[in-house]
Structure formats: structure tokens, C-alpha cells
Amino acid sequence: MNSAIFFFFLVISSNLDIEYKSWQIQETGANVTIHALMDVDCPYCSRQRVVLNKLAMNKEVNWVLWFIPSSDKEENTHKLMANLYCIGELYGTEHYFKLSEKLLSTPNHLLENSNYTHTLLFSSPPIERLEVEACLSKKHADKYFKRAQHLVETFKLKGTPGLLIQPSNDASSFMLQGYTNYKTLLEKIKKASN
Length: 194
Prior knowledge:
Number of strands: 4
Order of helices and strands: EHEHEHHHHHHEH
CATH architecture: 3-Layer(aba) Sandwich
CATH class: Alpha Beta
Low-confidence stretches: 1-25, 65-73, 155-181
Largest sheet: 4 strands, mixed
Shape: globular
């Protein structure tokens, strides 16, 4: 097993309260949710993205969230990720992953430019801004990302390629939703990487 692929933290926390949205359930049917924290400049992350994309497309997990690394403009980062969340909810996994890949291949200095990222999000494929704004106004996306960001800060994961895996209610047993234990999930990741 290539250790570089697994250069991430498996953070088990029962405090990550995620409300599954209809597009996640319909498209995957999985009970495991993986949230990814990645640095754009991370040498391991491109391979890790390939593996996680395979897992998501093979309906092994609900969805994968790419955290854009923090910068001096925290507010733009939060807004960017909230917009991406709503685009996924409204337009589905395919749009979500395409935009995620575009954002991850964008240089850091451009990610800090809200005009640039806004244009990127709503250009191709065409996304209806009013629909996304209506989604954002419901506040669930903003609340979700603040909760996720709090966990990231608590576990000091900023700038580190990492994963937050939403567990079952009994986090102390290291049981993940839909799997006997975390080793089963790692085996699936290993298989997807081949």
C-alpha cells in the first residue's frame, strides 16, 4: 500500500451533524460521508483525489468535499465553499466534481479573488445564480460549513491533506456508517487506487 495515498488523518467525531440532502442519497445510496481537507499545493492530493472520485462515482460514499486552504481572505473561502455546496445540491454530483477540480487547479492568489472565483463557479456549465442564492439564503450551507470549519480548526488540520469521516453515533468504537470498521473502508480505498 502506498503510504503517500494515506497521508491523511481519519478524524472520528460524533459532533459532525450532517443532514443528508436528496441529491446525495439518490445518487449514491451510501451511508458513509467523507469530507476532504486538501492543500492545493499538496504533493499527494492529486492521487488522493483520483481515489476519492472513484469511490464517489462507484457509490461507495455519499460525497466528497474539497476544503480550499485558508488564506488571508477567510470570508471568500467560506462563501466559495458554500456556493459549491449549493451547486452540488441543485445540479448534482457531476457539476460538483467538475467545479471542485477547476478550483483545485486554480492558483492560490486567484482563489483569493472573489470576482475570479464567482465567474469560475457560474460560467461553465451554466449555473443559475438566483437558484444558488436561494439555496444560500436557507442558511443550511453556511451553518454546515461553519461546523465543518470548527472541526478543522479543533483538530489543527489546516494546510494538511486530511479527511473527516462522519462516523456512526458510537464514535469510540471506530465504527463507520455502512462498514464493519475503518479497515474495510481503507481496503475499498486501496482497491479504488489500483
